[in-house]
Amino acid sequence: MRRPIVMAAVWIVLGVPVVLFLGFLGVPLVFGAAWILVFAAALLIARQSFLDEAGPWPPAPPQPLQRGSEVARLAWSIDTRTGMVGPSLRRRITALAERRLREHGLPPETADPADVDAVLGAGAHAALTGPVLRREDLESLLRALEQPLVPSTQESP
Questions:
Q1: CA 73, 78, 80: angle at the middle one, nearest 5?
Q2: What is the pLDDT of residue 95?
Q3: Whole-model pTM?
Q4: pLDDT digits 0-9 by tens, 107-142
Q5: HEC profile of 52-88
Q6: How far apart are CA 56 and CA 60, in angstroms?
Q7: Which residues contact 68 (CB under 8 A, 6 or more apart)?
Q8: What is residue 134's three-state secondary structure?
Q9: Cβ(88)–Cβ(133) under 8 Å?
Q10: How far is CA 42 from CA 17, 35, 38, 39, in A?
Q11: pLDDT, tens digit, for every residue of 70-111?
Q12: Separation of alpha carbons 95 and 102, rounded Å
């Protein structure tokens, strides 16, 4: 609190003689005072700290890029021998399907099977609620989920 008061007093003590000297040289006092204020503002702006100096020094070394194995884990979740989809991939597909149903205004828990099939394609409700999700059902669900939410309004030629 004391430092700003001292700075203002120094500017007044130094500024008044400079303004009077400029007035002696023929510069109007108003312009001399304005130039002193401009000079003071420029010095105050120059003293600002534009870098964040509050952080720890030296900065922490950069972390190496960690590549996740989620895609590989999901791919290995399909049993190629039986064609059954594993639980992690089933949870992911179910979450995506529920999100798509919510975007269409259908609550996933209480949605009518016919409405689910209308949004996600034939057999989607049975595939999502059945005990086993097969690779063929997964492919049809992925095709339905990759379609845009709103059909195109352009006419096909």
A1: 130
A2: 92
A3: 0.50
A4: 888 888 898 888 888 888 898 888 888 889 989 998
A5: CCCCCCCCCCCCCCCCCCHHHHHHCCECCCCCEECHH
A6: 8
A7: none
A8: strand
A9: no
A10: 19, 10, 6, 5
A11: 777 777 788 888 889 888 889 989 999 999 999 888 888 888
A12: 11
